[in-house]
Amino acid sequence: MAMERRDFLKSAAAASAASAIGMAVPTEVQAKADAAGNEWRWDKAACRFCGTGCGIMMATKGEGADRKIVAVKGDPAAPVNRGLNCIKGYFNAKIMYGADRLTQPLLRVDENGNFDKKGKFAPVSWKRAFDEMEYNIKKTLKEKGPEGVAVFASGQYTVMEGYAAQKMMKAGFRSNAIDPNARHCMASAVVGFYQTFGIDEPSGCYDDIELTDTVIAWGSNMAEMHPILWSRVTDRKLSDPDRVKVVSIQTYTHRTSDLADIEIIFSPNTDTALWNYVAREIVYNHPDAIDWDFIKKHIVFAAGPVNLGYGMRRDTDKSIKEGKYTAKEMETVSKEMQKEVSAKEGPALEPFGYKAGDTMKNNGGTLGHWEISFEDYKKSLAPYTLDYTASIVKGDPNESIEDFKKKLQALAALYIEKDRKVVSFWTMGMNQHTRGTWDNTLAYNVHFMLNKQARPGSGAFSLTGQPSACGTAREVGTFTHRLPADLMVKVPAHRKIAEKQWMIPDGTLNGVGKQHIMQIHRDIEDGLVKFAWVNVCNAYQDSASASHWIKAAREMDNFIVTSDGYPGISAKVSDLILPSAMMYEKWGAYGNAERRTQHWRQQVLPVGDAMSDTWQWVELSKRFTVKDVWGEYAPSGKRKKPLPDVIAKAKEMGYSEDTTMFDILFANKKAKAYKLDQNDPIQKGYDNSECYGDERKVVGSDGKVFEGYGFFIHKYLFEEYASFGRGHGHDLAPFDVYHKVRGLKWPVVDGKETQWRFNSKYDPYAAKETKGTDDEFAFYGKIAKALQHGSLTGKDKDSKKTPLKNKAKIFARPYMDPPEMPDTEYDTWLATGRVLEHWHSGTMTMRVPELYRAVPEALCYMHPEDAKIKGVKRGSLVWVESRRGRVKARVETRGRNRPPQGLVFVPWFDEKVFINKVCLDATCPMSKQTDYKKCAVKVYKA
Asked: Which residues, other chains included, contact 250 with Cβ-Cβ below 8 Å and sequence gap of 6+?
């Protein structure tokens, strides 16, 4: 029974919707849906976009290379989205079939076909591509050591891709210069978790939405950035509109504000003051609301230094000394070394030993902190009176101060109200912040004092922006400083665990992991990094002060590679472009914001000669032997000690000097034990291009047709990675289980997922720690769980460390100005971010005709009065200019985003409106997360 696609979709949608609500399905409609189901193969998968982790159902039709994805719908069985998709989710298929998909490697060459950095791109074989990579990596290792080989990694890697990349970089090349673009989106949340709990990842889950009475969105446009979660918030609000309250705390009005009972428009960066105001209200005016029994059992108070700087370049950096930064840029960069305490931040800093007008000499970021008394913590809150807080936080100049104060009081009252459950949500708005780590810890302060954390319906909850920023960046450990399951490269005992697991010699791993993603850019500009590989991201569009990094990549002596599905800015900047298989052209797994791990199978063959990033890494490993990479390396970069020669130890383990990294890391005896089996219901009937090869007969890295590895490499990579966390509070289920369920929230113990961590009623690890006691909670993380003592102004160096087993921390953190604020020349705040229709740099979504037509360009959203003052009208072009550069954008004064006077919003998805040339690359000095959300600009008619 033949059936047109449009008719099927209508019938299937009707059948699905009717089934979901228990309605009887008309026989004819059901028959049509069933008939089409016989022709189309449906399978579950995870959405390619944000960190929500929605489940989708995907239909394919055809055989072999002719099999194509023909339909996508929400998965009714997926607990995250329950059959719904957002507008991007419905186009998971079309993102793979853009007209300019990359189908073969491209190399810059001269007229004779030789590599030429100034040449034009020409097609080359996979063998030629790997030849060039091998040559440049070996050259770099010899000249610069492991620190010279770098990878711009991603929170969009599959778990297997990220694990393979990390393993080859850290165990093979001995380089920790790998860091994901997740550094841009949630590194501050990570360090906030470490500092507060001693372990990473949220304690709550999405079920909190249905259980709470209050949803507070802190600087997060959930309606557009996490629309499926927002649909659940909306449903909760409408289910009990009188009881359920929604608060939107933002720098400008947008769609999240439309549902809110209270909207608070704050001045950029002042959310730290707002958190402290709420805490002050609790401590000074409602001390009876503090759950002292909980505090005494489970909490200590802590503080750290405040003269951290802003994570910018320092005057000792090579490129600063060489004059690569203009006088205008240095007006801001100079504050990295020292600054004058402003009148605005003076009251907040007085308890910490500074007053307005003092010179603060900055020593750079530190994670160090110490225990203080509650009285010291109380003293740190003293400045945040209603009057002081309102005076510095109010972001809309047209709002009366009295009305604004009433909103602040109402906010505090919602948190404080006894028996009112509260969930605080945030994403980049709090994380992309020069004090992003502080901001994250301040959220937990409020929830802890009220005993509204790690409870059903209550908790501070950091959302993530990318589909596997949690699963691959954080849990796999693709950050420069991390290893899987919260292990750290700087800790010798942790390195030994990884070395044993990876079957590599003791002493192989590099203990210095300080090349975060912005440091990699800076190291390229300084000439330390000579080889850089962009994986599953668009590093040259998504990094602030972008002109610096593009100039360094194009004009300096280096070799830049980009693996991608499409020719974005990073690909155009590169010397070699590799065509990557996209999402459903490979087996994979993602980990979402509520700790849910999800897997999918390869649905179709990749286009052209594209191959997965896992394949690219594994093939590269064949080019490097023990003698190539495991010799001694002199000090380099921030590593001040030599890396030892471990070749002799490798021989003792049975390896020879000519054993390849492929044989050691990816095709060892353990790996080959994972058999391919077409009788296995998980594998049966599904393509596996890495393991079998496929009918495209791709000529691989050795110049021969690639016929597969002959073992189930995806399962091996996942199971080996998972073994790091099992029994250590990061337990994952077996590979096969994930192909039978719609994801599970880790830790998965005895087959059961965990909804609320640290709560002994729900978390088996907390239950184990509290066994035999009446304790309800155990904050069992082990990082930074022994502290010296001190006061707000410093640590008592003679004090002994006190163990803090099963305890969390409340931190004293003051409000501080960002390094750049509007002034007479640059008189306007610039905020940047995303829009509903487009994903990050638009590399995929701008190829979808429907999404492109909906939002074809990035607009400069502006208050109508500002437009009038500047002499511009809706639809006219303006320059948006900072100390770093300028871009031209079209004005919008009546759009969905409605800034207050004095602020403009320009999203960053559009490479033609390249707003990251304008943005500032300041970071949180503790997390190294870039603060893209704010800088000072001037806007004028183009």
From this structure: 217, 219, 221, 256, 257, 263, 264, 265, 266, 429
Model confidence pLDDT, tens digit, residues 772-829? 999 999 999 999 999 999 999 999 999 999 999 999 999 999 999 999 999 999 999 9
CA distances from 68 to 63, 517, 601, 613, 642 (A): 8, 36, 14, 21, 52
Among all chains, which residue has been given the structure tokens 């005896």? 669
Burial of residue 156 (CB within 10 Å: 0-12, 13-18, 19+) is buried
Residue-level pLDDT at 28: 75
Helix (H) or strand (E) holding 774: none
User: Is there a catalytic annotation at residue 465?
Assistant: yes
The question of whether 88 is a catalytic residue gets the answer yes
pLDDT in tens, 894-942: 989 999 999 999 999 999 999 999 999 999 999 999 998 899 999 999 9
Measured in whole angstroms, the distance separating CA 211 from the mean position of its chain's CA atoms is 27
Please pick, among 32, 44, 88, 421, the residue that the annotation labels catalytic: 88
Amino acid at 294: F
Candidates 50, 185, 488, 862; catalytic one: 185
Structure token pair of residue 83: 């059959």
CA dihedral of residues 918, 429, 48, 166 (deg, nearest 10): 80
Q: Which of 195, 453, 466, 501 is catalytic?
A: 466
Point out the catalytic residue in the list 53, 55, 465, 588: 465
The two tokens of residue 631 are 């010799």
Give the Cα-Cα-Cα angle 184, 258, 901 (nearest 5 degrees): 70
Start-to-end CA span in the chain (Å): 59
Question: Which residues 6+ apart lie within 8 Å of 140 measured at CB?
Answer: 148, 149, 529, 530, 531, 559
- To the query of whether residue 186 is one of the catalytic residues in this protein, the response is yes
**What is the rounded distance in angstroms from the CA atom of residue 815 to the CA atom of residue 805?**
30
Q: Does the annotation mark 156 as catalytic?
A: no
Do 485 and 477 meet the contact criterion of CB atoms below 8 Å apart?
yes
Please report the DSSP string for 289-341 in residue order. Answer: GS-HHHHHHHEEEEE--S----S---TTSHHHHTT-S-HHHHHHHGGGTEEEP
Among 50, 58, 428, 816, the one annotated catalytic: 428
3-state secondary structure 648-713: HHHHHCCCCCCCEHHHHHHCCHHHHCCCCCCCCCCCCCCCCHHHHCCCCCCECCCCCECCCCCCCH
Tell me the pLDDT tens digit for each residue of 240-295.
999 999 999 999 999 999 999 999 999 999 999 999 999 999 999 999 999 999 99
DSSP H/E element including 237: helix 227-239
DSSP 576: E
- Please tell me which residue in 86, 160, 186, 470 is annotated as part of the active site: 186
